[in-house]
Amino acid sequence: MVRESLRFLAVIAAGCGTIIQANAAPPLDPTSMQGVRDNFAAIAPKIGEALPSITIYDAEGQPFALQSLKGQYTVIVFGCLT
Amino acid sequence: METLHRDYSPRGVKFYYVYKSLAHPETNGYVVPITLKERLMHVKEAERTLGSKFSWLCDSMDNAAKHALGSAPNSEFIVDPDGKIVRRRAWSDPKALRSDLEELVGPVEHPTQIADLGLKRQPPPKAAAKGIVPRVVVPRGMRPLITEAVAAGGKTPYYAKLRAEVDERFQRTGQGKLYLGFYMDPIYHVHWNNLAKPIEYELELPDGVEISPQSGTGPKIDVEGDIDPREFLLDIKTGQDIREPLKLTVRYFACNDEQGWCIPVTQEYLVQLQLDPDGGWDFKRLRGTAGNRQQSPRRNQR
């Protein structure tokens, strides 16, 4: 039961961070939480680095530069409906 | 997470959720948006259903923020007043985040408890009955393909959205199963019109691709309307290095009871025979246990 629960959590954790192409060896196991963590450790900006210079959107659809997040401590959490 | 917002917003900390590509399409009926406008509708839906006090940002449709910040589904970062990253975590951990904020900003005398928040989650929209049409049973390891809605952003939304997947065998050998699922998008509050002709699909194939059947018709359903997906499991065989997409045309009737309309819709997709790294996945199809008439092998052993 515990093993199945852990496996289920691992599948949830794997979410949408995989990079696999058809007929190619997958660099990241989509069912592996460790795979997601390893990928994140390798490619996410490091401690001390600035946020990347990219523009996304606010909730109203207006452009929002990530690097404008200055002047206070800011918490950023990625998420989606499911 | 919301307790942190309540405790640290008054201390000047800002909190943002970044809405990214859907991790697990079909959960609660939600399907992958195909335009920025639809992803922003998802943001509003998340605000409505989760009751969060966070501000929301919305990733671009090329998933720039997700990719630039580590491609993890639920990561978190703390940025200092100079705009430098001072904490990063592949998987969000509210307890660790509180510890971080205590260290960086200072402790809170009486930390808010979840019970203090009175969070009111709202259910997802449901335009009609579901659980009527039997789901198809698929092989294990189904993964999504890259699809492009040809007229995305046009006058008529893609009320029914395509999800195309291939099985593990196809991914290894180029021969296996192709899954075509058409899902009514709940953000439009629509349902199938079962008083009209059932959904039809038709595929136009590039050289080197064999698919059977190339066209098909969905089941005739006895109730007037429902929101169950219409699913087709096809045989597919390809040669090497297929770069041309499949062209898919789908015809269906959609109804919106709130707005009082039913219309015929014809829409087109291009389907690349290439896995979509941002397509998310459905747990059951990934494990090959989809189909609402089938139990998992593990359960059968008990």
Describe this entry's structure for a reader.
The complex is a heterodimer of chains A (82) and B (302). With 82 residues, chain A is α+β, with helices and mostly antiparallel strands. Chain A has one domain. Chain A has helices at residues 2-14, 33-43, and strands at residues 55-58, 63-65, 74-79. A two-stranded antiparallel ribbon of chain A has the order 1-2. In chain A, a hairpin with a 4-residue loop joins strand 1 and strand 2 (63-65). In chain A, helix 1 runs parallel beside helix 2 (33-43). The longest helix of chain A is centred in the first third of the chain and has 13 residues, at 2-14. The model of chain A is unreliable at 1-27 (pLDDT under 50). By secondary structure, chain B is α+β, with helices and mostly antiparallel strands. Chain B folds into 2 domains: 2-117, no CATH class; 143-291, Gamma-adaptin ear (GAE) domain (Immunoglobulin-like). Chain B has helices spanning 2-8, 36-50, 64-68, 94-104, 114-117, 168-173, 283-287, 297-301, and strands at 14-19, 55-58, 76-79, 85-89, 143-149, 160-166, 175-184, 191-193, 200-204, 209-212, 215-217, 225-226, 230-238, 246-256, 261-275. The radius of gyration of chain B is 22 Å and the shape is globular. The two termini of chain B are 38 Å apart. Mean pLDDT of chain B is 90; it is low at 292-302. At the A-B interface, helix 1, helix 2, strand 1 and strand 3 of A face strand 1, helix 2, strand 2, helix 3 and strand 3 of B. Strand 1 of chain A pairs antiparallel with strand 2 (55-58) of chain B, so a sheet runs across the interface.
